[in-house]
Amino acid sequence: MQHKHLLGLENYPAEDIQTIIDTAFSFREVLDRPIKKVPSLQGKTIVNLFFENSTRTRISFELAQKRLSADTVNFSASSSSLQKGETFKDTAQNIEAMKIDAVVMRHPAPGAPLHLTEHIDSIVINAGDGTHEHPTQAILDMTSLYEKFGYLKGLKIGIVGDISHSRVALSNIHGLKTMGAEVTLCGPATLIPPNAEELGVNVNYNLDEVIEWSDALNVLRIQRERMGGGLLPSVREYRNLFGITPERLANHKKELVIMHPGPMNRGVEIDSAVADSDQAIILDQVLNGVASRMAILYLLLGGKYEEGKN
Amino acid sequence: MNISKLSKHVVLQGGTILDPVAGTEKKGDVHIADGKIKSVGKVNAPKSAQVVDCKGLVVTHGFCDVHVHFREPGREDKETLETGSLAALAGGFTRVCVMPNTDPPLDSPESIRYTVDRSEECSIHIHPIGAITKGQDGKELTEMGAMLSEGAVAFSDDGLPVTDSGMMRNALEYATMFDIPVINHAEDLCLKKNGVMHEGTVSTHLGLPASPDITESNMVHRDLELTELTGARLHVPHVSSAKSTDHIRAMKKKNEKVTAEVTPHHLFFTDEDLVNFDTNLKVAPPIRSNKDRKALIKAVKDGTFDCIATDHAPHTIEEKEGTFDLAPFGMIGLESCYGAVNRVMVKENKMDQVALIQMLTVNPREIMGFDTGLFEEGMDAELTIFDPKESWTFSRKDIYSRSHNSPYVGQKMTGRVKHTIVKGHLTNI
After folding, report:
1. Triad A276, A280, A281: Cα angle to 5°
2. Over the stretch A136-155, which tens digit does the pLDDT of each residue have?
3. Where are the domains of chain A?
4. What is the per-residue pLDDT for A83?
5. Residue B311 catalytic?
6. B78 burial class (0-12, 13-18, 19+ CB within 10 angstroms)?
7. Does domain A14-134+288-301 have CATH number 3.40.50.1370?
8. pLDDT band for position A53 (50/70/90)?
9. Would you say the CATH fold of A135-285 matches that of A14-134+288-301?
10. Which of A222, B12, B216, B343 has its CA 20 to 30 A from that of A253?
């Protein structure tokens, strides 16, 4: 691996993404065994540093760490001394002083993981930094697409929903572009960042056209708190324009793979009938999440990182 | 840096004398007797005179900055009038105007008097700018007349815009009675929202909330129109965008009461420098695109901007050490100003040195109504001596401010201030 840390997928090397995906498939086999544990990271200590609520990502990381026999400690903002006025830097340095090997961090501020690397020597893995990046989610999404299609180059991926506030979208865009896929963003104009085309993607507000174009749709969660403000008029309006409903899909006679990073707002951005259908690979994504995170942890902590190449 | 009292006779020997009022550069000496200019050019000083060797250096008026934040009263942990004065001396500044967004703000004759009295004890000249509205809350005009009597030189709610157009009109109209500049921090807060940087490709990549250039230029345009309507004097601070620059250029063609300043950092950096989330580059208005930067450089050269102002804004390490979204807006800038603007404007963009120095000396003084004939016999010596060619790297040890929030650390500078003379003292930097 060319980088010590995994902070984001912007400028992350294609060959390393491919290595992670390939390794993830080896770990998928492990997960299918009756004894789902390997000793790869025995003796390594990883801290899961969560400054923002997360259930799925944290559990996925924790399981990945346990499957690799690493020792793990969980730290979440609600139970931490941050509320006593301790600074981010103090928290980071205190944890590192306890001799650990890696930190998996979720933080509401864009750039926080990069900031963390300035304060500590451990390996840092970004588990989501505000509206910036969520690289492990994008890697598990790509692993799932690879599993489904057998290739990424030339795939056409539509990303639907709130792009502006989505770290999942940004990391997916960078990763998919690097791997040679094409991306079209679709969502309300108020939730698509200005200059989005400069990311090397298409923007299309017409969901039916995007469905027609895409091999797979990655449907993003639409935050209910965005409704009724200045950005979106109502749930009804959103569903009419951008909801993934069986009726809408029925109008398109084509194979279409449906993805969702979770948690879903059933009945808002996606209907249950679609989410639970055969064309959805949403639960495969969850399983691939554990396998991909095992691969990332193994490759970054497993001693294959060559000093000086970063 | 050491500061010593001027001897009875001092000769600044062998330098180039840059007179920004006359717009000339000539070899010559300067004789200072009893802290006042005695003669300039050929001098006849006693043999015992203290000699400052100025070979290869330029001797000019002390720099004047119409826009700094010295945080006193209220946030003396960031800066005081004394520590701010040291930063100024290190940057060649002999005279500054402090913005009123202190705690409490300078919004009364008493607080103006406090600042004037305190500045007596400082090593440079400090002039307070009074708040436009009481408490800087945009609702009630301050007692401008009484504040002027106590020593205020201009009015501004800097840090915050006067959002209400009716209030801004009132402020400008009221200020016409005194013929002093009104300075509005132009940012449309409704458009800015929670923006922490310039909106563009870089902000999309970084996932940071951002605001577009018209956040500034819309309000600049409003202020220019209100100035036209009221006949007041408007000074536009820290212009950051190409669009604002165009509005100002157009209005200046028909209205000579408009003046404008640009900061070194908007000339030096672009939003692409934010890719490492350096909180020292979080400023308001934000560092914009390279296209904007180029437009600002052009506007410096064509005279759209009257002066360079640093918007020196100290913040503690603790505040700036946090994440980008939470860090306060502002960077310090006095110490790095000359080396940065000289590099960008004279070295890289071939601007005439005299014209640039005018933007640091005579022009800001004219805006604020200060004496400009600083080389005339009998004037208190208020001079800056710099090496226009020295290449150096700005480092932490070049900072004299109480705060260290400078993105220039590690940056290459061209030209360096060597000595500053003001209030009867010589500072060797």
Report:
1. 115
2. 999 999 999 999 999 999 99
3. 14-134+288-301, 135-285
4. 56
5. yes
6. buried
7. yes
8. confident
9. yes
10. A222
The distance of A110 to chain B (nearest Cα, Å) reads 6
DSSP A221: P
1.20.120.140, 3.40.50.1820, 3.20.20.140, 3.40.50.300: which CATH number matches B62-368? 3.20.20.140
Number of H helices and number of E strands within chain B?
Answer: 14, 19
Q: Which residues contact B117 (CB under 8 A, 6 or more apart)?
A: none
pTM, full prediction: 0.93
DSSP type of residue A109: S
Sign of the torsion angle spanned by Cα atoms A202, A207, A213, A215 = positive
Chain A residue numbers with beta carbons less than 8 Å from the beta carbon of B325 are 108-110, 130
CATH code of the domain occupying B2-59+378-387+416-428: 2.30.40.10
**ipTM score here?**
0.87
- Topology of the domain covering A135-285: Rossmann fold (3.40.50)
Half-sphere exposure of A244 (CA within 13 A, CB side): 33
| CA–CA distance, B244 with B237 (Å, rounded to integer) | 11
Q: What is the pLDDT of residues B122-176, one digit of tens each?
A: 999 999 999 999 999 999 999 999 999 999 999 999 999 999 999 999 999 999 9
CB atoms B205 and A199 under 8 Å: yes
Cα separation, A69 vs A62, whole angstroms: 11
Domain ranges of chain B: 2-59+378-387+416-428, 62-368
Considering only residues 190 to 229 of chain A, which have any Cβ-Cβ distance to chain B shorter than 8 Å?
Answer: 193-196, 198-199
Residues B172-227 pLDDT 10s: 999 999 999 999 999 999 999 999 999 999 999 999 999 999 999 999 999 999 99
